[in-house]
Amino acid sequence: MNECRLEIFTQSAVAAPLLNGTQAQLRSANGSTTHVPKAGKNIGLTGRNIKLAGTDPTVGVTFTSVETPSKKVFVPMEDVIVNEPKRLIFILPTKVTDGLWNVSVTIQYSSNRTTMKIPRTYQMDTPLSVGTPYKQPEDGNEEGGGEALNTLP
């Protein structure tokens, strides 16, 4: 033990927001449930430090079509029903049609409950499948992930 040397390495924890995924659960007339988000229905985003706060007009949730990247649908802060640091719940706009969408959140919220001067935008790692469950192609060449985002934990 006399020859042992102890080195302590410290590093600050990552404080940046993290956008984990989505939650959607719809009940059909026969009582069965589906976990695929549909336009006009409730959807929830989960993560860390994703509360929409600030006065910048870009603060909100943006859906960008994977197929047509010029097609964007913005959900402003005032349209979010539940706005918490770990979850956002809102009605998925009807302009978000069936298909794959990239989801990003622009915030000014900080983990110490202050408002940042400059807005920051964070995007979910994988696209969100709206309307129909995403199935990875059988050849496996395309990156998947949308299906995992469309399930409740």
What features would you describe in this structure?
The chain is mainly beta. It has a single domain, classed as Coagulation Factor XIII, Chain A, domain 1 (Distorted Sandwich). Helix content is 3%, strand content 39%. The protein contains one helix and eleven strands. It has one helix spanning 146-149; strands at residues 18-23, 26-27, 33-34, 42-48, 60-65, 72-76, 80-83, 87-91, 99-109, 115-123, 128-130. The strands form three sheets. Strands 5, 6, 9, 10 and 11 form a five-stranded antiparallel β-sheet that branches. Strands 1-4-8-7 form a four-stranded antiparallel β-sheet, with no helix packed on it. A hairpin with a 6-residue loop joins strand 5 (60-65) and strand 6 (72-76). It is extended.
Could you tell me how far the N terminus lies from the C terminus, measured between alpha carbons in angstroms? 47 Å
Number of helices: 1
Radius of gyration: 19 Å
Q: Provide the low-confidence segments as ranges.
A: 142-153
The averaged pLDDT comes out at: 76
Blueprint of the fold:
Blueprint: E1 18-23, E2 26-27, E3 33-34, E4 42-48, E5 60-65, E6 72-76, E7 80-83, E8 87-91, E9 99-109, E10 115-123, E11 128-130, H1 146-149
Antiparallel strand pairs: 1-4, 2-3, 4-8, 5-6, 5-9, 7-8, 9-10, 9-11
List keywords for this structure.
single chain, 153 residues, mainly beta, Coagulation Factor XIII, Chain A, domain 1, five-stranded antiparallel beta sheet, four-stranded antiparallel beta sheet, 3% helix, disordered C terminus
Short description:
The chain is an all-beta fold and 153 residues long.
